[in-house]
Amino acid sequence: MYTQMGVDSNIVGIVASGNAMRKNPVLRAICADLFSKELLLPLHTEEAALGAALFGGVSAGVILREDSYAKIQYQDDKEGTE
Question: What is the pTM of this model?
Answer without folding.
Answer: 0.64
